Predict the 3D structure of the following.
Amino acid sequence: MRFGLNRKRLIISLSVAAVAVILFSVVRMTGFRYRYPYHYALASELSLTREGLEEVAGEPDEHLENIFGMMVEASAENWERVLELAVREEKTLPGCYFYNLANAMMGKLGERLLSYYQLFEAGLFIPVGEHTSIPDLICSNEVWYQLGEMTMAEHHTILGMIYSPAHGGPRFYRRMAEINMVNGDEKLSSKYLALLGDTLDGKWKEKKKFIQKKDIVHVSDDVRPVLKGLIESNPDNLAAYEYLLCYDLLTKNIPAFIEDYVPGKKDCRLYQEVALVHLASIGDVSADKRKELGISEKVFRNFNHYNESLNAARGNADMLPVSFKSTYWYYFHFANRG
Amino acid sequence: MKRCALFCMVLGILACGCRRELSEPLMFPDYRGVTVPCNIAPLNFYYDGKGSADAVTTFEAGCIRVEVKGREVCPARGEWAALLEAALGGSVHVTSSLFGEWDIEVSRDSVDSYLTYRLIEPGYEVWNHVAIVERDLTSFAERTLSSWENTGNACMNCHIHKGENSMFYLRGKNGGAIYSRGGGGCRKLNLKKDGMASGTVYGDIHPSGRWGVFSTNIIIPGFHTGTGRRLEVYDTVSDLCVTDFDNDTILIADSFARPDRFETFPCFSADGSQVFYCSADTVTLPRQVEQLRYSLYRTPFDSITGKLGPQVENVWDAAIHKGSVCHPKASPDGKWLVFTVADYGTFPIWHRECDLWIMNLSTGESRPMNEINSPEFSDSYHSWSSDGHWMVFASKRDDGQYGKPWFCHIDSDGKASRPFILPQEDPHLYDKTLKSFNIPDLGKYPAPYDSVETGRIWKEVSAENFH
């Protein structure tokens, strides 16, 4: 009889403990989802558990949450939200990469480029190598896809997939299906759609108009011919045009910039500032030359003001007025690699 | 109103659930009308679409009759073996409630029982979690010969068999060529010496096991911007060399390492008295890659001294054929040479137009193997079974992205049968996998090592230096 009672108590205790454990797990999971919604969303896109994602990226925190947020929102093409998150992650590679991409998608890359800390060309195209982090690898395809360069988009998506711990996941399947739909390769696309177990929204159709019409062969880090090809194939691809100009100016390749720059194609103070650097370097800032390169009087006046201030400050960046910090001249003089 | 909404929801769910079921039936893999070796594992396949759940498939040969019901058609191994035995030299008759009737021809020629391949995602010069696997073709058994898990996630590639000799590369730190001769223990070799552009890359082992003929290549991955062309891999330097596995030496002849020529993809003739290789004039790369066309050459090989040449004969002229040749491999019976032809370049797996060609070595006549080539995607990287009657090759014909092993029978006139894909225990595997079956290679004998042994060699054995 006593044994029977003890047994009953034991069963009740175990049941209570089991319910408590389940409740605790549910509360913990709900809490996690509430606190880190982007961690949760990205883990599921990569077919990983929360712990699996932690193994790759580290303990969840606000910084990672912002990065994952940019990755998730960029896939959904919510550019305003990407920008909002990128501003919180200034001076990080993903922050810079998504800041530039979001602005390009909103037609404001040149306008806003130097209002943010730039990491040279790495902030435009994430350099992929032995030491690239897995989250960086996973998002490196985004810029190519958005610009309409499907070979590079596919290459980078496969790279992400190769290094992702689950070697796959809905995020990759969706992107591979989109790329192959754009390329007109429905057979391959259907393989990924079957793995995805879902259909695509129609956004990929927008990319079809950007398809490269000319075939060239290039090595992976030689991005200029690729961007030029995109522009030649579709002169309305302004995002590709801005990426090309910004690539030239961030690498301080002024001759390349002048070769690629089409005055008036995209009205932007920054591009006029770069064009003035070119005129100064050839020693001809005459009104005719300025007009030829679409340089406004205001930019020219500001250039003179900058030079006067620089001389007065004896080349000391800290002594220059803050308003010059977002000019190309400031970047050209003071931005150093490493 | 609520009832109506509920009814609509149920109807919607049913409609979604039945969508697949209502579509036209399909069958994958499609083994209709193929010829198979008498020792092949069951040709498992599945149906999908309308009527697939209730499908009935019957296999008949002699007095053996096997019936399989349902979507997955996976005959038991014992029953399948009995069917093949009963149909030897004839055919297995198949009746399907969805697709009618067809025959599967059963050849008396058996295929070499072991197929090795590298399982890798289709990237280039990028790897993670790579393995070289050996599949027993008479069953579904797989054995890992070398795994990323035991080798510090090293890259590994190019497994080749020649009789009882086999070799593959472990790349990177602690790497080397892992060579097993005559089915014996493994050696780890550093097949590079001063003056070589790189370590050895593509190559072949002499029938004696003493010699190897290889190319050294500086390989550059390029990318196409045009749709559907993907990668363009090319060499900026490539030369030939001969390795002597008895004396740990590497022989380089100036006439096969010319700075104005690319020389690559060497292979021995069946008797080892000649070497076939591909060669082209150098061009400016990548700009002139479309002008890069390799011809096929033959040169004598002295198996006493290990010397190539001096005569060189052009046996397939790129200018005449307006194509570029690579991966030649001679059949073990000495009758045929099969090679790959693309419009241009040296790495054709991403060239959709890339096809297999066959050359009659007694007449020198060659032709594209249209009976097996896919019109849409690349067919490349073939390997012969040791009797010269079966061949495996890698084809991207299913989807253009993932290479898979396909088999065909070669008759006495050099004509190939309708090819079939490597059967899998799970017939859905090809739909699910995101790996290519890279460089399939047939072998009569199992490799005398496994991943534990190669892991030990990687970790503990120093590579023997060649000079």
